[in-house]
Amino acid sequence: MSLIRKSNTGKYGLVYHIVPPYGLMNDPNGLIYFKGQYHVFFQWNPTDTKHANKHWGHLVSDDMIQWKRVELALAPDQWFDKSGVYSGSAYVHQNQLWLFYTGNVKDEEGNASSYQCLAVSEDGIHFEKKGPLFEHPKGFTRHVRDPKVWYDARVDHYWMVVGAQTEDLKGDTLVYRSEDLLHWVLNGSISTEEKDFGYMWECPDVIPFEEKDAFIYSPQGIEAQGERFNNLYQTVVQLGKFTIDGKFIVEEDNLTEVDAGFDYYAPQSFQAEDGRILQYGWMGIPEGKEGLIPTIQDGWIHALTIPREVCIQNGKYLQKPARELWDLTTNVQKIQWNTTRFESVFSSPTQVWTVNWKEAVQDKLAIQLRNEIFIQYDAETQVLSVSRTDWETGEREIRERTLQSPLQHLNAWMDYSSLELFVNEGEEVFTLRFFTEEDSLDFLIQQTAEQEMEMEVYSMKESGFIAE
Ligand code: FRU
Q1: 107 — pLDDT class (breaks 50, 70, 90)
Q2: Is the CB of 447 under 6 A from ligand 1?
Q3: pTM
Q4: pLDDT by residue (tens digit) across 142-175?
Q5: Considering just the CA atoms, what is the radius of gyration of the chain in Å?
Q6: Fewest CB atoms less than 10 Å from the CB: which of 81, 85, 238, 390?
């Protein structure tokens, strides 16, 4: 096997993804570059593999490749966050690291409330809690959470977006503004339109790009529509403009799912040292069948995705693996062929591979990975599908996406029990976990047309990824 495992994470443990050392991980939180280091915080239950007792776990890195675990950043130990330190974001202010998060509180009678809170640190490791920042407006349930903060040079003040649920049980996003990050004024709902898209929106994020802006959020309560919205909960992106009045004006009918796979939720963006916008997602989905994930027997559950560079190009939201990650790869093998069938065996379940077709795939394509994942494409419909074994029922299950352009490029990042498949340079990504009993490392690709293609297969370096 390729990488040395630093965590006792068992058969399905991942080696170049951020995983919890034990317990449950969910959303990425507080992503930031601060005083020469990248910080990744994450929702963490250190005492169980269930959704309870949420803390902020914490890792730091100089290069986004080698990570070091540091002491946990925030624990649920105050009256305003005693039932859980929920998701939020980070901002560097006055040379300090400011964390904005949601404090969750449930009393003995089962009444719950939430508070948007602040915690501040000089060194990026030890945080002083400053308590709740404001009261929530009337007309909303207790489900108000996940503050994301950024600075807007056009108006010279800060914005905060917060996921919310209205009293008539509709998902919404509240927008606040502030001149000093301490005093916040409610600006209103993000949308100018009547919203009726699910009963709760979690983890909103506005990413200002040059050409257009992206509004990303994770709605709950959306019904499946053909190939769309087939997971229990979704993460969607809308393109448009975040105005100086704090509204997001969407372009017509451009709502898409950020990820086309099975396991993706609650992403957060941040800015790299050089200005690139990067994004981590949670490689999981709450509730549903997560309680049956076999890693629970090894005392841990869930992971983050690899960091992805995101941008808008030709009006499309694109995601690519952060370029730093290629430094983890080594020993590339290049294979060219123009036959209809090619078979091989990977040397490890952590391999990364690309396939480039000289011309777009002309007919039908089928790929089998590790005897477990099947990727299929039909040039006539331009539909690409990925299927796996449902770990709840043992049946095959499938996700499909009609591509916006004909298939010409695939890039897969495999890590024991996860796959992130980037299609056509990031036009779509399929993210999934899979838990096969088999130890097969087989790879088989078949195409009905004899077409020229080149495959590159990379190994991952032995140098380790997370220092304990
Ligand atoms: C999304 C979410 C957030 C919340 C956090 C709690 O997965 O439900 O809305 O802050 O997880 O862990």
Answers
A1: confident
A2: no
A3: 0.96
A4: 999 999 999 999 999 999 999 999 999 999 999 9
A5: 22
A6: 390
* Distance in Å, CA 2 to ligand 1 centroid: 34
Q: Which domains can be identified in the chain, with CATH numbers?
A: 23-323 (2.115.10.20), 331-460 (2.60.120.560)
Burial degree of 167 (CB within 10 A; 0-12, 13-18, 19+): exposed
Q: Is the pLDDT of residue 8 over 70?
A: no
Give Dmax (Cα) for the chain. 68
pLDDT the model gives residue 468:
66
Rounded CA-CA distance 135/260 in Å is 37
Nearest residue (by CA) to ligand 1, atom 6, is 86
For residue range 368-410, what is the model confidence (pLDDT) as tens digits?
999 999 999 999 999 999 999 999 999 999 999 999 999 999 9
The Cα–Cα gap between 314 and 411 comes to 21
- CA–CA distance, 56 with 68 (Å, rounded to integer): 15
The answer, yes or no, to whether any atom of ligand 1 lies below 6 A from the CB of 26, is: yes
Q: Strands of 243-337 (E only): list them.
A: 248-250, 256-257, 265-271, 277-282, 300-301, 308-313, 316-321, 329-337
- Listed in sequence order, the DSSP H helices in 145-195 are none
Tell me how far apart the alpha carbons of residues 117 and 279 are, in angstroms, rounded to a whole number. 23
> Do residues 270 and 33 make contact, with C-beta atoms less than 8 angstroms apart?
yes
Ligand 1 lined by 117 (C-beta under 6 Å): no
pLDDT at 344 over 90: yes
Between the CA of 88 and the centroid of ligand 1 the distance, in Å, is 9
The tokens for 380 are 């006539």
pLDDT value of residue 2:
35
Query: Average of pLDDT values for 259-271?
Result: 98
Q: How far is CA 332 from CA 116, 160, 299, 420, in A?
A: 48, 44, 35, 19
Cα of 86 vs centre of ligand 1, distance in Å, is 6
Chain centre to alpha carbon of residue 178 = 28
